[in-house]
Write a structure and sequence with these properties.
This protein is about 85% helix and about 0% strand. The chain has helices at about 1-25, 30-55, 60-75. Helix 1 (about 1-25) packs antiparallel against helix 2 and helix 2 (about 30-55) runs antiparallel to helix 3 (about 60-75). The chain starts with a helix and ends with a helix. The model has no long low-confidence stretch (mean pLDDT about 90).
């Protein structure tokens, strides 16, 4: 049950971020904030997810930070 709820929350985070990104397609400032908020929410979700599994380690935290920072750079570069 908890795993299903975690997946629903993750889906909600990503779908909401995508919807808001598309909805504010004419406002790059809002889009950038939505990207930051979605990335931060995903990071917090991943910490909770690995904490629940009992395998939360520094290497996992760093891995998620690198993935999110890479995604932020790639997506934010589309605003130029």
């Amino acid at each position: 049950m908890i795993k299903k709820l975690e997946n629903i929350i993750l889906g909600f985070i990503l779908v909401t971020g995508l919807f808001l990104y598309i909805y504010f397609r004419n406002n790059s400032h809002y889009q950038r904030n939505i990207i930051y908020l979605t990335g931060g929410s995903y990071f917090l979700w991943s910490l909770y997810h690995h904490y629940q599994k009992g395998d939360l380690h520094l290497s996992i935290i760093i891995e998620y930070l690198i993935i999110i920072l890479f995604a932020l750079v790639v997506i934010s570069s589309t605003f130029l």
